[in-house]
Amino acid sequence: MKLWGGRFTKDTDKKVEDFNASIGFDYRLYKEDICGSIVHAEMLVRQQIISAEDGEAIIQGLKTIYRQIQQQDFEFSVALEDIHMNIEQRLTEAIGEAGKRLHTGRSRNDQVALDTHLYVRRVVAEVGNLLLSLQASIVEAAQRYEDVIMPGYTHLQRAQPILFSHHMLAYFSMFARDFQFLEYVRKQADRMPLGAGALAGTTYPLDSEWVAKRLQFSAIYDNSMDAVSDRDYVVLFLEFAAMVMMHLSRLSEEFILWSSAEFHFIELDDAHCTGSSIMPQKKNPDICELVRGKTGRFYGHVMGTLTMMKGLPLAYDKDMQEDKEGVFDAVDNLVFSLSIYADMIRRMKVCKDNMRNALAHDFSNATDMADYLVKKGIPFRQAHAIVGQAVQYCLQHHKVLNELSLDELTSFSTSFSEDIMKALQIETCIAMRQTYNGTSLNSVQAQCARGKAVLATEKQCLQQWEAINRVVDAIVE
Ligand code: ARG
Asked: Which residues does the UniProt record annotate as the domain Argininosuccinate lyase C-terminal (predicted)?
């Protein structure tokens, strides 16, 4: 008979059983589920709601089940619907009567909420570590190639020269914001739902504060109905994941372009590319393409979960069982994407000569020519127009700005003199951009230093999170 079968006279339809079951995916919550149950049982004993002997039997029984699942010596049953009932049923089979007391003062509604909170807390640390490693790989690349010059683009048209390190550090900034987002996600998951029961609280003298402390939650839900129906932290996690993927996807697009023959700015390591089954010469940036391609499903998970939630009356509704698959999929793909990317950045080759040569024959220094005139007293708008005419002239005569003679230049403005040649050098264009967030070597080095400070803070944060997550391991082992 089903754990909830008392009021039923007929068996569940087989198709309904399959459709209703979540064990096919929520088995992944077994550690969290067992941990939550152990602490719940400990609390029931402390509050003298169950006897110490029953408590002990429950705890030892649950630990055994944990080991069995870990050793893949546990058969999950679809008839038992989900991870919660699979474990509870097995417990009762193993220890008898006492197992039936575990669910006192608890509902699957607050149970699954607790499991998911613990799970999100766990993966936040896991993903945080990978994000940190990716950020570190970016700072390393920026330092390794700190003075490599490349064209900077807007509209994918050459705009102004920049340092490659500067370009890469822009991504560092994005991922650093993602880490801050992750901190917020964790904060929202850091609230303990047990004690809410099905929706209204329970009639037993539960000690939720003790449970929260034991599991190292910093807060308890204020409202039992919110506790069992809040999935905001799930949506936030998915939004975080979607944002990271959007950033990775942009980087992917750059790497795909840069590794084409047209750009040839970078060469990805063979280990991160694949060949073609027909064209022997091909080396394809599949990883970048896959990351870019997978970004879509992350957006889908955000939309799917938000939409699943939008019409739900309080409190728990079975719709919410749909919150998990998106999260698991996001975790799996994010873990892959982040870790492969960090490796790929560490191993890719930067073709510095190609980057520099791309600037040999173009107009990326046009703004600098205008700035030169401004420094000679010409209003910027006018300087802009003068340089525009010079560019026009160059295009007609197949030249670039630094190939114009002083005579040619003075025909556009008498303010040009000898020193214009130095001002137009690409190296000068870079060196002049000394603003706080600019592309000069000094500014970029300072940016790197700030980046390293960010990494150190993130590391501290992760150490705290990991220490808290180890409490869960200690409880189940
Ligand atoms: N498998 C369910 C889920 O993931 C657990 C909660 C079920 N609660 C209930 N009242 N049927 O949401």
From this structure: 363-431
CB of 82 within 6 A of ligand 1: the answer is yes
| Whether 282 contacts 276, CB under 8 Å | yes
CB 115 within 8 A of CB 58: no
Local confidence pLDDT in tens for the 477 residues of the chain: 788 888 888 888 999 999 999 999 999 999 999 999 999 999 999 999 999 999 999 999 999 999 999 999 999 999 999 999 999 999 999 999 999 999 999 999 999 999 999 999 999 999 999 999 999 999 999 999 999 999 999 999 999 999 999 999 999 999 999 999 999 999 999 999 999 999 999 999 999 999 999 999 999 999 999 999 999 999 999 999 999 999 999 999 999 999 999 999 999 988 888 888 888 888 899 999 999 999 999 999 999 999 999 999 999 999 999 999 999 999 999 999 999 999 999 999 999 999 999 999 999 999 999 999 999 999 999 999 999 999 999 999 999 999 999 999 999 999 999 999 999 999 999 999 999 999 999 999 999 999 999 999 999 999 999 999 999 999 999
Single out the residue of 379, 408, 377 nearest to residue 391, CA to CA: 408
Q: Residue 20 Cα, ligand 1 centroid: separation in angstroms?
A: 10
Select from 3.30.70.100, 2.30.110.10, 1.10.275.10, 3.50.30.10 the CATH code of 14-101: 1.10.275.10
108-205+219-358 has which CATH code? 1.20.200.10
End-to-end C-alpha distance for the chain, whole angstroms:
31
Ligand 1, atom 2: closest residue by C-alpha: 321
Is there an atom of ligand 1 within 6 Å of 22 CB? yes
Q: Please list the active-site residues.
A: 155, 276
Distance CA 265, CA 159 (A): 17
Q: Is 109 in the pocket of ligand 1 (CB under 6 A)?
A: yes
